[in-house]
């Protein structure tokens, strides 16, 4: 099934790069694969950008288990590459039918698995598409505030969100981005945040926060489990005293590096090594104990120090992290 792998990998990249188009692309892939072995009247019809309804998904699941809904094995579409290969080799008819039957079963299982990963509450998820630059900058037919995923916002913020959403259309974003408006939602909304930082007041603070909240929403349990796995690798027993803010920062850096596929062979440069000395740490001394002994550093049960303060040296000052 090598002919199907590039298409599936493309959809996998869409999952990562652009949340607002993944659902529509996944539905398109499901319909395309189902059309290779299901009878035409059993294949749902989708217009660009549309998604399968709950009833269509239910019917498709039933058709996958119904032999009467399948086209004859000889009529199944396995791609031009397979047809060319079959024209070059001579297989026994029994062997050929067996191979084709197994291919149809493979396609049916693949479609079933893709249906299983379709996110729940698809209408709510599809509302995220309104945060794409093309939708935000629309002149006519622009989405209403109620079309946005406002279920992710506080009830008392709806009026402010409406004002900020309408104000977005009155900004010359082409000039702000020097004529190169980002095509992805994340890059565009990061630009909106940067625009806010240039002004004396936040004009789009709440709507940009809502956009990032919607764009970063997990699509499945696998996303949550992956985040927990990253955290488990970071927060070891020795690092148990790290603050949540520091742990979150480390996790963001690690996930970003993993996603970008970079920094797998990091080597510290000499200037960095020169700063890795005992001067990085400050030690808290204990007061004199009741037994008259002078206070000092005491090891905990695990053999480590109870408290060590790590200083991050900067040009303008010293930032202290409690470890």
Automatic annotation (TrEMBL):
Occurrences of domain HAT C-terminal dimerisation (ranges): 194-254
SUPFAM superfamilies in alphabetical order: Ribonuclease H-like
Keyword Nucleotide-binding set for record: no
MF annotations from Gene Ontology: protein dimerization activity
Annotated InterPro entries: HATC_C_dom (IPR008906), RNaseH-like_sf (IPR012337)
Signal peptide, first to last residue: 1-24
Pfam families with a match to the protein in the record: Dimer_Tnp_hAT
Swiss-Prot/TrEMBL keywords: Signal
Coiled coil (residue ranges): none
Protein name listed in UniProt: Zinc finger protein 862
Taxonomic lineage from the root: Eukaryota, Metazoa, Ecdysozoa, Arthropoda, Hexapoda
């Amino acid at each position: 099934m090598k002919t199907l792998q590039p298409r599936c990998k493309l959809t996998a990249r869409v999952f990562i790069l652009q949340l607002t188009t993944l659902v529509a692309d996944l539905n398109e892939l499901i319909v395309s694969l189902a059309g290779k072995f299901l009878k035409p009247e059993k294949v749902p019809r989708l217009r660009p950008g549309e998604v399968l309804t709950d009833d269509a998904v239910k019917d498709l699941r039933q058709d996958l288990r119904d032999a009467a809904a399948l086209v004859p094995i000889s009529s199944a579409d396995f791609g031009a590459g397979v047809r060319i290969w079959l024209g070059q080799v001579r297989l026994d008819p029994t062997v050929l039918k067996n191979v084709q039957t197994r291919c149809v079963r493979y396609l049916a299982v693949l479609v079933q698995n893709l249906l299983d990963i379709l996110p729940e509450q698809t209408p709510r998820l599809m509302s995220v598409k309104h945060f794409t630059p093309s939708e935000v900058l629309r002149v006519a037919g622009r989405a209403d505030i109620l079309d946005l995923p406002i279920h992710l916002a506080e009830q008392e913020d709806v009026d402010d969100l409406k004002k900020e959403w309408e104000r977005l259309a009155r900004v010359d974003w082409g000039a702000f981005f020097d004529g190169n408006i980002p095509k992805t939602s994340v890059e565009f909304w990061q630009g909106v945040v940067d625009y806010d930082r240039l002004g004396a007041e936040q004009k789009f603070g709440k709507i940009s926060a809502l956009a990032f909240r919607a764009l970063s929403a997990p699509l499945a349990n696998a996303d949550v489990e992956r985040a927990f796995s990253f955290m488990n690798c970071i927060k070891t027993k020795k690092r148990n005293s790290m603050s949540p803010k520091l742990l979150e920062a480390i996790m963001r850096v690690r996930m970003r590096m993993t996603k970008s596929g970079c920094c797998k062979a990091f080597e510290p440069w000499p200037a960095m090594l020169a700063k890795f000395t005992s001067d990085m740490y400050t030690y808290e001394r204990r007061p004199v104990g009741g037994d008259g002994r002078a206070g000092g550093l005491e090891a905990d049960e695990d053999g480590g120090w109870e408290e060590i303060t790590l200083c991050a040296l900067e040009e303008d000052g010293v930032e202290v992290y409690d470890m």
